[in-house]
Amino acid sequence: MDIQFRYANEHDLDAIVDIYNQAIMQGFTSHEKRLAVEDRVDWFRKHSFDSRPIWVATGSDQNIYGWVSVRDYYGNPAYKHTAEISVYVSTDNRRQGLGSALVDLVIENAPSKDISILIAVIYADNLSSIKLFENKQFERWGFLPSVTHVFGKDKDVVLMGYSYN
Q1: How far apart are CA 68 and CA 42, in angstroms?
Q2: How many domains does the chain have?
Q3: Helix (H, G, I), strand (E, B) or coil at 161
Q4: For residue 153, is it within any domain?
Q5: pLDDT-above-70 percentage for the chain
Q6: Could you tell me if 115 and 83 are in contact, meaning their C-beta atoms sit under 8 angstroms apart?
Q7: Is residue 106 part of a domain?
Q8: Per-residue DSSP letter, 63
Q9: Domain-located, residue 69
């Protein structure tokens, strides 16, 4: 698969939301209902190329196969060098190394975005995501039992961290 990476723009929101909705239906997000593009416009606009970007992975056909976002971890200025990473790959393109390449892209570019700590917030039952981040040298920094409730079930969360320090 020939993949290119670029910064996302608002025209990409249809594909970004479609891929995110796939994850919702599989129970990998904190949402229980499919989102519309309009639901994600404000979220998208809070990102910026210089500090908290969204990248998309496109094929030679220019279709978007996955995306990764970096956002503020916590709204307090004391956390300004810490960012949360979220990665999503379309169902048809999983297990081909795309998630790994998207995480690598963030790891390589985070220092230039004034980021020294990356945090991934992952449901404990999402073993493939946990393995992906472990393979990228993220460590388990925390376990939060039953902190979310989706699809009628309490779910545990694993916090995984990567430090450049």
Answers
A1: 17
A2: 1
A3: strand
A4: no
A5: 99
A6: yes
A7: yes
A8: -
A9: yes
